[in-house]
Amino acid sequence: MNEHVGQEFDNAALVASDRGSFFHPFTAIADQQANGALVMVEAEGSRIVDASGKEFIDGAAGLWCVNVGYGRREISDAIAAQSQKLPYFHSFNGISNEPSIRLSEKLLSLAPKSMRRVFYGSSGSDANDTAVKMLWYYNICRGKPGKRKIISRDYAYHGVSVASGSLSGIPMVHQNFGLPLDFARHVSRPDLYRDAPLRQCHTEEAYSAYLADELDRVIRAEGAETVAGFVAEPVMGTGGVLPPPRGYFQEIQKVLDLHDVRLIADEVITGYGRTGTWFASEACGMKPDLILTAKGLTSGYLPLSAVFVGDEIWSSFEEASKDGRVFAHGFTYSGHPTCAAAALANLEIIEREGLVERVATIAGDFRAAFDVAIGGCAIVGEIRSAGLMMGVELVADRDTKARLPATAKIAGRVATAARGHGVLVRGLPNSDIIALSPPFIVTEQEVALIATGLRNAIEDVTQELRSERLI
Predict the structure, then answer these.
(1) Quick check: helix, strand or coil at residue 390?
(2) 0.85 exceeded by the pTM?
(3) For 403, which DSSP code?
(4) Strands across the sheet with 55-58, in order?
């Protein structure tokens, strides 16, 4: 990267302009006005540089998405070539384009064999919206229009649009927006660290059975004739980086089959290798009717989402189309040719370099580095991981699992402190959890630097908490 990048940008001017023009997502306006933005200008591999010239190791791959790392010329070249050839055209009314056709074939070759078609959008939020409407359409097609409710899980994140925000179970996504809408219901998330002991579930299998029974009771209370679907991430991401307990999805599937309820696998984070398999749903024992993907599909180089439609739902759509009805859903940018070209180049890199296999290979060493670096820290309650996903839960007391007061904003403070040590990690919303999800090409040395930087940040904040008498 350019060693003189800080000289090429006027950081102060950019920060001032940002204050006066840019409305940031998931940002407290008062904080942005007071503290200014961190302005990023250049990146390569797992490293990113701000406008002042400071370099960071990106331990979060942006927002769980830059899987192949920054600066991949193959993707940039594919974008440039396609934008010169056919930058855009819509896919309404049976119109198509070559990159989207090739991408659809490629994706179906990688997906579980039960998947039949691919539907495109631009984000994980619109993928979740699409899934909701597909289930509603599916049930209308088969003469069950009353089956409209979708059950999600507490603290799950499925997006922030009106429908996907309703599925999300994070309080701050609902507060001040009048959400969730009345089609959404929520059950407990699978939290072995905090929830299982409260339920007196002493084994993972017992906890899975408890959660499946809870889902069964909710469906019965709502009326199975009103419930269309259950949506879940194979490994819950923003909700706390929570791998499922043993047998969880197998027990859940029994309940869904009993009540004629379809399963939506939200693989917006886990899809395309994040946990060491192409799709985490298969490894977790899920049998989804719809699979939702986005982030890793293009490694964030351009916005693109893909909804995989399973055999039963697709067959219903095909049959319904015989009366001439139109599937009246889609977006201006559905099947965008330039985004599809970026995805094809990204997937080619993942396959050529064996990056899914690499994630599976290095996952143990990734976890071990953090166990050693931060496992003994006074405020680290638990470290959870799956592939190159990790959650670090911060507590006031390791023995009692006592939480810190919400006013301490502990996850945000640790994430901010980590920047001072040259590391980017994420403090998850409405929680005391730090999330890590580095690019798949992260080196052993970089993992060590991330772990050391996070340890130093935790130690810095621990001293602050002691001086504030919060621990």
Answers:
(1) strand
(2) yes
(3) P
(4) 40-44, 47-50, 55-58, 423-424
